[in-house]
Write a structure and sequence with these properties.
Length: 206
């Protein structure tokens, strides 16, 4: 059986998959394709992900792209009963939170991060960042409400649902999103970020 390959530099959404691989203790090869080098648009990589985006994985010949789908797959294959829930309803809620992170949170966190931290100062749009942060108030309130009821999104234990949402929200710090109105979400995000596997994945970014 060939070793799992994870495509994408750790300083990209591949971070999410590397965090999952670390949580699961997987043995993998990292292929640190960059998003700013043109490699994602070259034929060898387009054969892996025709969208030209990272991350993607090759799990013994099985190719998969889209960060949330990859993490749900890896968690189910290698972490059933721990990182991946066994009850049908909990599995559905893991999908719910993962899709929610991508559709309700990701774009606005990214907009705030680019306009507050990534773009050269002269190209930043402070109004766009502020508008994105205002848009985030409602979904972050939803997250805070869920975490007022239980320590983690599916209940007592950290699962793929937490990893997927927290990995998207790992951009909230450089985006300087104010979490003061969302104390439960802030506490949860910190607990997720302090996990040894999260730290190990962050170390790959240095
Ligand atoms: N929805 C995709 C988005 C992937 C994506 O846009 N990745 C960026 C890097 S974080 C990328 O590949 N950019 C380079 C490009 O589009 O050529 C996912 O979550 O996997």
């Amino acid at each position: 059986m060939a070793k799992l390959k994870i495509y994408g530099t750790p300083r990209s959404r591949a971070f999410r998959v590397l965090w999952m691989a670390k949580e699961l203790g997987l043995d993998y090869d990292s292929i640190p394709i960059g998003f700013d080098t043109g490699e994602t648009r070259q034929p060898p990589y387009l054969a892996i992900n025709p969208n030209g985006h990272i991350p993607a994985i090759d799990d013994d010949g099985f190719i998969l792209w889209e960060s949330m789908a990859i993490n749900l797959y890896l968690a189910k294959k290698y972490g059933a009963g721990t990182l991946y829930p066994t009850a049908l309803e909990d599995e559905a809620r893991a999908w719910q939170w993962s899709l929610w992170g991508m559709t309700e949170i990701e774009r606005n966190v990214l907009t705030a991060m680019f306009n507050r931290a990534i773009l050269p100062e002269g190209q930043r749009n402070a109004a766009a960042a502020d508008a994105a942060e205002r848009e985030l108030a409602h979904p972050l309130g939803v997250l805070d409400g869920a975490l007022a009821k239980a320590p983690y999104l599916l209940g007592a234990a950290f699962t793929v649902a937490d990893l997927n949402v927290a990995s998207i929200l790992s951009w909230a710090r450089p985006a300087r999103i104010d979490f003061a109105p969302f104390p439960k979400a802030a506490d949860w995000l910190q607990r997720c970020a302090l996990r040894p596997a999260a730290k190990a994945a962050r170390d790959l970014q240095r």
